[in-house]
Every structure is written in C-alpha cells, then in structure tokens.
Amino acid sequence: MESKDGLLSCSEYLRTVSYSSEAFDGNAQFGSWRRMLAPFAHVKSAETPPSRYFAKATGCSLDRLHIASVTTDGFTYSRTMRHVRDFHIEHWCLSLRKTGFEISQFGERVLREPAGGISMKSFAVPFSGGCSRTEVDYVFLSREAFQDEAHVFDAANHTTLSGSMAVILTNLISSLHQYMGHLTPADIPFATNAVSALLIATIRSSSDNLALAEDAISASRFDLAKKYIQKNLSRPDLSPMDVCRALNCSRRQLYYLFEHHGGVAKFIREQRLAACHATLENQSDHRRISSIAYDYGFTSPSQFTRQFRTRYGYSPSEAAEARFHGQAVTTTMPKTFSDWLLQMRCGESA
Prior knowledge:
Layout: E1 8-9, E2 17-20, H1 29-37, E3 42-45, E4 55-62, E5 65-72, E6 75-79, H2 81-86, E7 92-99, E8 101-106, E9 109-114, E10 118-122, E11 127-131, E12 134-141, H3 150-155, E13 159-160, H4 164-179, H5 188-205, H6 210-214, H7 216-231, H8 240-247, H9 251-257, H10 264-280, H11 289-295, H12 301-312, H13 316-324, H14 337-342
Antiparallel strand pairs: 1-2, 2-4, 3-6, 4-5, 5-12, 6-11, 7-10, 7-12, 8-9, 8-11, 10-13
Helix pairs in contact: 4-5
C-alpha cells in the first residue's frame, strides 16, 4: 500500500521501501523529492521551478546496513550544521555511481564522483554539492552499529576509494543490489559482515592514505574518550570536564575531537540511550525499565522515556514488550528515507 509521501512497504523482514516522483503531479514532483531529502540537506533543482522532475528510489534494510538504488534528475544540495545538529542522520554513505557525475565539498576537500567510481561520505559533518542526472547504488552504515570502525571510516570521509580491494568491494555491492530480493534472513549477517570487512580492507590498502595518517592521533584519542565514557555511563554527573581530565586535554581540544558527533554531551546521551536499547532487547536481562535507565545514568524516568522515543521512534516499554515476545519492534511506516534509515538500530543486529 503506497503512502501519500510516495514510500512503499514491500517486504516484512527486509524492510524494503520505494519512492517515485511519478506518483505526483508534474509541478509537485520536485517538492515531494525535496521533502524526502529534507533531513539530509536543503536541495534545489537545476530548473527553477521545475515543471516535471524524475526521481526514483528503492531501499532495503540488511541488518546493520541499508542499501538503496536511486535514479534522479540533477539537483544541488547543502547539508548544514543545522541538519547535523537537529537530525540523527550520522551514517557513512558508500556511493557506487553507475551513470552521471557528482561534485561535492567538505571543508577544503573536494570530491569528484564520475560514473564507475566508488566513494565515501559521512553525514556527521556538513558538506555541499550537486549532481547531473544520475543513477547511483548506495550503502548506508549506521554509526551506532559500527562504533569500533568509526575512526577508520571517518578517516576516509569525502574520498574516492581505489585499488584492487575497491574493485572487489564494488562487485560485492553490485551483487547485493542485484540479488537483494533473493536474500534470506540467514544470509543477511554474512552479507553485512563481508561489506564491512571489505570496506576496512579497502580504506587501509587505498593508495591515498593521507587522511588516515593525519587522523591517527585524533582517532586514538577519540577511542580513549569513548572507552572512558562507556565505562562511566552509570554516573549521572558524567560531564565533558570529566572527559577532559581523563584525557588530559583542554575543552577546545575535546570540542574538536567530538565535533563530528554533535558535541560531547550529545555523544554521552546517545551512548546512554544505545546501551539502554541494547539491554532492553537482551532476552536474558529481566530488569525493570526504570532500573535499566538508572543503571545507565538517567535520573528521570519521564525524561528517559521522552529521549528514547525521540531517538528510536517507539517507547522503552514497546521495546521491552517486543523482546518479551521474541520479536523486533514494529515501527510506523517511514515517511522519508531518513525515517527509514533511523529504523535500523544496532540492537536489531544482535
């Protein structure tokens, strides 16, 4: 059944969605596509205002990652700090461009993406760009689900992946898109593990390791900070100053370390919520919801419930109830592709 926003639910366990601007009248087509991408970026069409606009997309959720195929007319976009701050889209995105061309800029780093190439971006930072009419296969990787690989993935942000491993990775992604309708639930963990392992190998063997070298010290410091935060989540008074003292660094240094994660306070809150979510889905853990919240540093049950629902789209009690029945949480029908991305949680991959 198609929704008024053009998204279509196609599969129960793969959580497949699709969109087509052709479901709308000509002068409303670009507006529907702009709404679909609104949490990602502010977009403009090459023709103002466009009399017709073609955009078609299909996506499929595979355990810890999402894959999507998109064909669209040209447009420009700008992802600002407001998008980074106000929405929870912090995924990494692999782009395998089949036709067309895209150019984008992050800071002083310019990324040119011709057809046939594979590149990587992070949605945890602002960037801008534009594309011609293009057809692209995407892989989205959740920051929650790949925390241990974050420093490697962030080092490759806004770069083209190259080398023999990139060719193998490209072939794997193409195969996933081609055969995703034939995958069984048992196949999915193997597919996602293969993608992540190949991606790490590709980044580390790439001929351009400058970013990796430049980020090595920051990555090590960030790992130390993350481990300290995770070890102290039970402390309600855990603060950025505590992290500064543990790392022996200044507030300014800490700010730059967590800039791509929305700040230290947000990172701590997200880690608390993720820990609570994983615990609520653990069938061997029978603690009360309030006890779990307190054990991870929340002092107000109502505030915890509100933040949990905002983050995950459902309440802690709904997560616990689904766990009790051995089911995944049933979420509402996504209205945008960002909603669909946010319905994937690292706890669901356990």
